[in-house]
């Protein structure tokens, strides 16, 4: 089997989730790091990377075994599951339509809500050129609301995985975004189930390996 190529940035959460899935399925891959900006050779907005992903964002995933290039983390994750997860290690826990819908609704909740709200919180806390307290408070509150939703689900599921029964790709989607809580200026003190879930994920082999490969260091529980 030929080695897949994961395009990443060391500080971004989205490439991590794809690396975790690749590690979980024991797929060979290498990581190519890119920088923010429009440098023609190594910037995500530069000419070289825009030939891979017209949107200029990581992750992107190139698979020489099939010739497929995917980008957007949800598309990358679902490609990996369709093509390589023949034993359904990462997919829905059961075979019913409800099981499939439950998997998708939590996947989309991260992709459409918790992830973007956390990203906006980070932006207005650290990167916006001028301080905008109204925006920061709005996005912080929305991220906290997402934590409340996730906390409730983990309480119902038993706390070890977002979907009852076992770890799935849904957990991999959430892990790197929830891990940013402290950078976002938030706390998990009110969310004991999230805190325990994140602690357990931190100790998993595929998570440790993915962080080492993408970020150069294993994760620690914040």
UniProtKB/TrEMBL annotation:
Taxonomy, superkingdom: Eukaryota
Domain GST C-terminal: 96-222
Family, as annotated: Belongs to the GST superfamily.
InterPro entries linked: Glutathione-S-Trfase_C-like, Glutathione-S-Trfase_C_sf, Glutathione_S-Trfase, Glutathione_S-Trfase_N, Thioredoxin-like_sf
SUPFAM superfamilies per the UniProt record, alphabetical: GST C-terminal domain-like, Thioredoxin-like
All copies of domain GST N-terminal, residue ranges: 2-88
Pfam family, any one: GST_C_2
Species whose genome carries this gene: Aspergillus wentii DTO 134E9
Protein name in UniProt: GST N-terminal domain-containing protein
Transmembrane segments: none
